[in-house]
């Protein structure tokens, strides 16, 4: 068996220790005589898996008691679609801050339920920075302010929470959740698809302040109503049990690896190594404003785009995969989530150096 170094933006690489544990208990989960895939979600075995996962997530992320943790389906796209109907709460509209394509898509969905105020946008700068918070035109009556703390395609990340003057802050944390310590109390609602820093695709985490749910617009289907899901421990219907289980193992792996503080330090070191190299030469370039660069997704271009195919081919031969940039921006992108090792990042840097030396 030879595993590649996987820089895919998502589904993304998972911790090897977690995969090995899944493999070891695949056919017989802890003496139950069956795989987690075969368990009833109502049996005590799966209930213990589900409850442990929530307990560990609450512990590592420091989730206060007045927040519900939901394990849902529909991906992040599902959540930014269900979010406006759940959180409108008798208001007339929402504030969206656009720092990339995901926020833009989310704003479009919200427009079906109320007036969308684009409080700020960096689209004119091709989403290469976070608009200065002082220039945001926030509506004090908005149902919430929506941000995308890490824009996966553009590699732009918030490094602190914006002040929203009492209006709930809602965040699509799909690509940077659990990547460093976080103050949950600054948010009204956080949602994230699992397939980057949490586990396999299929499950989506929502962390929501209790007082914000229970007022969904009346036409909200029960299955998309956060209050009904909360009241039913996320099991109004059959949940994605296997993804939930693997996510729980990833939470334990985070606990054993220094918690979010330890994870955050390692992520900072990995990103710094790659950015330092990119900034030290002229062949590769990252277009994002330095203060707003992502520690998770690092896009870069080559001096000559005609070399892109060669770069990818050589990378593949060197065991480095998933580096092609998103089709909307081109170039390359290295996604270096929690499970990417420093050795993996170092191998990429060495390959980039060698490629630039021979082709540059
Ligand atoms: N938001 C962000 C920030 C993302 O990175 C992605 C997926 N790459 C999505 C939303 C969409 O996620 P899903 O495919 O789970 O709907």
UniProtKB/TrEMBL annotation:
It is an enzyme of class 2 (transferase). It comes from the Bacteria. GO terms for cellular component: cytoplasm. Its cofactor is pyridoxal 5'-phosphate. Binds 1 pyridoxal phosphate per subunit. One of its GO terms (molecular function) is O-phospho-L-serine:2-oxoglutarate aminotransferase activity. Its EC number is 2.6.1.52. CDD domains: PSAT_like (cd00611). It is found in: Cytoplasm. L-glutamate binds at residue 42. The modification N6-(pyridoxal phosphate)lysine is found at residue 196. One of its GO terms (biological process) is pyridoxine biosynthetic process. HAMAP family: SerC_aminotrans_5. Belongs to the class-V pyridoxal-phosphate-dependent aminotransferase family. SerC subfamily. Catalyzes the reversible conversion of 3-phosphohydroxypyruvate to phosphoserine and of 3-hydroxy-2-oxo-4-phosphonooxybutanoate to phosphohydroxythreonine. Homodimer. This is Phosphoserine aminotransferase. The lineage of its organism: Bacteria, Pseudomonadati, Pseudomonadota, Gammaproteobacteria, Nevskiales. The gene is serC.
């Amino acid at each position: 068996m030879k595993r590649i170094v996987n820089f895919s933006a998502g589904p993304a690489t998972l911790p090897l220790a977690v995969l090995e544990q899944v493999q070891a208990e695949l056919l017989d989960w802890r003496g139950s005589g069956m795989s987690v895939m075969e368990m009833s979600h109502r049996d005590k075995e799966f209930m213990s898996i589900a409850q442990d996962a929530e307990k560990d997530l609450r512990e590592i992320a420091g989730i206060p008691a007045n927040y519900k943790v939901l394990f849902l389906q529909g991906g992040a796209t599902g959540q930014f679609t269900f979010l406006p109907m759940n959180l409108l709460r008798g208001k007339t509209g929402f504030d969206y801050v656009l720092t990339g394509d995901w926020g833009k898509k989310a704003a479009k969905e919200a427009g079906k339920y109320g007036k969308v105020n684009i409080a700020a946008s960096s689209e004119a700068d091709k989403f290469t920075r976070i608009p200065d918070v002082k220039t945001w035109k926030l509506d004090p009556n908005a149902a919430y302010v929506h941000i995308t703390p890490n824009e996966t395609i553009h590699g732009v990340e918030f490094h602190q929470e914006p002040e929203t003057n009492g209006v709930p802050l809602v965040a699509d944390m799909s690509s940077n959740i659990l990547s460093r310590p976080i103050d949950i109390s600054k948010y009204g609602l956080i949602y994230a698809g699992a397939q980057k820093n949490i586990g396999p695709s299929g499950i989506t985490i929502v962390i929501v302040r209790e007082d914000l749910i229970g007022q969904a617009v009346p036409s909200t289907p029960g299955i998309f109503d956060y209050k009904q899901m909360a009241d039913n421990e996320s099991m109004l219907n059959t949940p994605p049990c296997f993804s939930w289980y693997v996510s729980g193992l990833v939470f334990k792996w985070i606990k054993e690896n220094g918690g979010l503080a330890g994870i955050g330090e390692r992520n900072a070191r990995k990103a710094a190594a790659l950015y330092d190299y990119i900034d030290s030469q002229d062949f590769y370039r990252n277009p994002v404003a330095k203060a707003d660069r992502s520690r998770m997704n690092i896009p870069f271009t080559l001096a000559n785009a005609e070399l892109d195919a060669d770069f990818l081919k050589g990378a593949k031969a060197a065991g480095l995969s998933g580096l092609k940039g998103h089709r909307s921006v081109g170039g390359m992108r290295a996604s270096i989530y929690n499970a990417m090792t420093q050795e993996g990042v170092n191998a990429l840097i060495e390959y980039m150096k060698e490629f630039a030396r021979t082709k540059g």
